[in-house]
Amino acid sequence: MKTIILSLFIMLGLIAPAIAEDALSVTPESVWNLVQKNPDQMLFIDIRDPVEIMFIGSTDAVDINIPFKLVDRKRFNEDKAVFTMQSNSNFASDVEKALKAKGLGKDALIVTMCRSGSERGKPSADYLLTQGFSNVKYIDHGFQGSAVKKGVMKGFRTINGWQNSKLPWSSKINTTKINKP
């Protein structure tokens, strides 16, 4: 009976829109395996501001860096003690160009990666789904991972994420991966 009701909801379109608008997370290890097995079948994007990459590092496993948000150095958030970030208005079109450069369409697998996975990773993947890209995921806990909550390492990002999964990365920026508008 549950299967029949679920099928009716899907057929009537009551469930599909919610599913289509919510990107799924993937582990860094699963993305690394995909990149090793089928690099030509997917687009792996580092969506951080290039300045973050310059100071934190990245992995050459990504195809390209296309920032989802860019630091606005003219606007400072005093409460959080950080510069604000503005959406990159060219994000979706730059992703589409990167897909075309690889000979892929909007139905190809796209994986986004930010610093922690939550503030930009998931929102960027969800945004691409609203822009007609149909197979978008984001790396759970992003490049740098989660911050330790207690103890000597409190505040340091030493849990999970690409960097802490012992996957290849470098502290040096690879300028050939940076999208140049």
Word description of this protein:
- The chain has 181 residues and is of the alpha/beta class.
- The protein has a single domain (22-177), classed as 3-Layer(aba) Sandwich (Oxidized Rhodanese, domain 1).
- 31% of the residues lie in helices and 22% in strands.
- The chain contains seven helices and nine strands; from the N terminus they run ααβαβαβββαβαβββα.
- The chain has helices at 2-11, 16-20, 28-37, 50-56, 91-101, 121-130, 161-164; strands spanning 24-26, 42-46, 64-65, 69-77, 82-87, 109-113, 136-139, 146-147, 157-159.
- Strands 1-7-6-2-3 form a five-stranded parallel sheet.
- Strand 2, helix 4 and strand 3 (64-65) form a beta-alpha-beta unit.
- The N and C termini lie far apart (54 Å).
- The model is unreliable at 2-20 (pLDDT under 50).
Describe how the helices and strands are arranged.
Layout: H1 2-11, H2 16-20, E1 24-26, H3 28-37, E2 42-46, H4 50-56, E3 64-65, E4 69-77, E5 82-87, H5 91-101, E6 109-113, H6 121-130, E7 136-139, E8 146-147, E9 157-159, H7 161-164
Parallel strand pairs: 1-7, 2-3, 2-6, 6-7
Antiparallel strand pairs: 4-5, 8-9
